[in-house]
């Protein structure tokens, strides 16, 4: 039981019927905050590609090829480890199920690699079964670079740092090695409903 | 990406406010006694948790304003539509208790071993973690050359003004005041852009280590201009805040 904070009161609007959609320790925002560790990369589309690989085996799509893949429109709630949550965000992208199928690859874990050197690790079970996408449009518009464009991973059931911006490849692995933020003390899995913000949570 | 991994579990603990200090009309530094503080690096942040009488809980992150080895302090800017920051800047007083855990974040940090030259770029309250870096540099006797470019709306909005007016040897502090300038102001009076950085920043060839902290628009503009002028992106570390509708 936490001690009371003398004189502190709720000032934000009670989320009402949305209360069940907000994980512990989170608050709702209407705008879309930006957080990243370094400068925003600006990769030209004619130099952009996306790969799924394991060992020496790799399947690579150019931007045009990637955009020609079957896509899905999804509306999901997102939860950032820095405490904000945003409901009903609308994305368009390619399901990771589709990408793994086409690449003919599988494995227990994946490392997402991004422009700018950022990485994040995920179990493949959290990327498949209609739970994750490589998204290139947000709100009906091409995804802006500061929000991860041309394309970012979208894994809405985990804290949003797992939805890596500027993603360029998924590398399948046998081991669950920590990615960028995971190496700096953030949780290896990152379930917002269990408030897995930092290592040991 | 040599990192200082944090592996231990971060537990909530009760700190006591030892003193508060108004930095500007809307910014307050809160000094804390934290009995079991594990120590921190310059540039890290911590989480604060408040609990209301009806059980309502709010958590937020704040940059640590003090250097490693100094008592923990945070500097908080009041956001008028915020929930936690007005409480911290207006209500909290010496003797109150505050739940916190940390330190958090191992990337936006600097120690003498990281070298330099250092380019520190602050927009508004983005100065807070950079101030921790400056104090750490001075306390460790580091001779790494530093340039700090600090963008504020007006002179009245400059945080740590007295401290920044007396920089340690080897530290240059350059202000720009974007909205209001006092009579006779001879410094910069515009937003930080490529041209201003061209006058102030270290040449890219000197391989500076750069820390940019401020609102998203500031960080985007500044880091983009630096990369375009040849700064290696991996030596430009950024920390963004704001546009979140409340802190």
What does this structure look like?
- The complex is a heterodimer of chains A (201) and B (247).
- Chain A has 201 residues and is mainly beta.
- Chain A has a domain at 60-194: Oxidoreductase, molybdopterin-binding domain (Sulfite Oxidase, Chain A, domain 2), CATH 3.90.420.10.
- Helix content of chain A is 8%, strand content 31%.
- Chain A is globular, with a radius of gyration of 17 Å.
- Chain A starts with 26 loop residues before the first strand and ends in an 18-residue tail after the last helix.
- Chain B has two domains: 13-104, Translation factors (Elongation Factor Tu (Ef-tu), domain 3, Beta Barrel); 112-241, Rossmann fold (3-Layer(aba) Sandwich), CATH 3.40.50.80.
- Chain B is of the alpha/beta class and 247 residues long.
Q: What portion of residues of chain B belong to β-strands?
A: 25-35%
Helix content of chain A: under 10%
State the separation between the terminal residues of chain B, measured CA to CA: 30 Å
Total beta strand runs of chain A: 11
Query: What is the gyration radius of chain B calculated from CA atoms?
Result: 18 Å
**Oligomer description:** heterodimer
């Amino acid at each position: 039981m936490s001690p009371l904070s003398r004189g502190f009161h709720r000032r934000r609007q009670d989320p009402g019927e949305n209360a069940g959609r907000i994980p512990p320790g989170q608050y709702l925002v209407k705008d879309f905050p930006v957080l990243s560790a370094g400068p925003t990369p600006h990769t030209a589309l004619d130099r952009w590609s996306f790969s799924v690989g394991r060992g020496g085996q790799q399947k690579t799509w150019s931007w045009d090829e990637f955009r020609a893949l079957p896509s899905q429109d999804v509306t999901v709630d997102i939860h950032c480890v820095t405490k904000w949550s945003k409901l009903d965000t609308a994305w368009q992208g390619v399901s990771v199920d589709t990408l793994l199928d086409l690449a003919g690859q599988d494995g227990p874990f994946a490392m997402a690699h991004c422009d700018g050197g950022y990485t994040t690790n995920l179990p493949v079970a959290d990327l498949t079964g209609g739970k994750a996408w490589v998204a290139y449009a947000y709100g009906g518009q091409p995804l802006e670079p500061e929000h991860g464009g041309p394309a970012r991973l979208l894994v809405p059931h985990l804290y949003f740092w797992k939805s890596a911006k500027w993603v360029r490849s998924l590398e399948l692995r046998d081991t669950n090695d920590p990615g960028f933020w995971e190496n700096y003390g953030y949780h290896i899995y990152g379930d917002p409903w269990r408030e897995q913000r930092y290592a040991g949570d | 990406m040599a990192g200082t991994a944090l592996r231990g579990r971060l537990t909530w603990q009760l700190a006591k406010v030892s003193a508060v200090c108004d930095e500007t009309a809307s910014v307050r530094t809160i000094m804390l006694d934290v009995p079991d503080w594990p120590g921190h690096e310059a540039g890290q942040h911590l989480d604060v948790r408040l609990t209301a009488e009806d059980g309502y809980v709010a958590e937020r992150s704040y940059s640590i304003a003090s250097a490693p080895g100094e008592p923990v302090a945070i500097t908080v800017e009041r956001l008028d539509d915020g929930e936690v920051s007005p409480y911290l800047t207006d209500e909290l007083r010496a003797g109150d208790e505050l739940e916190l855990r940390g330190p958090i974040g191992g990337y936006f940090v600097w120690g003498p071993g990281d070298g330099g030259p250092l380019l520190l770029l602050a927009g508004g309250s983005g100065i807070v973690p950079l101030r921790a870096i400056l104090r750490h540099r001075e306390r460790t006797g580091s001779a790494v050359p530093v340039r700090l470019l600090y963008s504020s709306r007006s002179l009245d909005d400059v945080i740590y003004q007295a401290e920044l007016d007396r920089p340690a040897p080897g530290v240059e502090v350059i202000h720009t005041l974007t909205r209001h300038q006092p009579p006779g102001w001879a410094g910069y009076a515009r937003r930080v852009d490529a041209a201003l950085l061209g006058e102030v920043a270290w040449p890219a060839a000197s391989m500076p280590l750069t820390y940019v902290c401020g609102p998203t628009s500031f960080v985007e503009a500044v880091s983009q201009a630096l990369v375009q002028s040849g700064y290696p992106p991996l030596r430009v570390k950024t920390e963004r805040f704001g546009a979140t509708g409340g802190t």
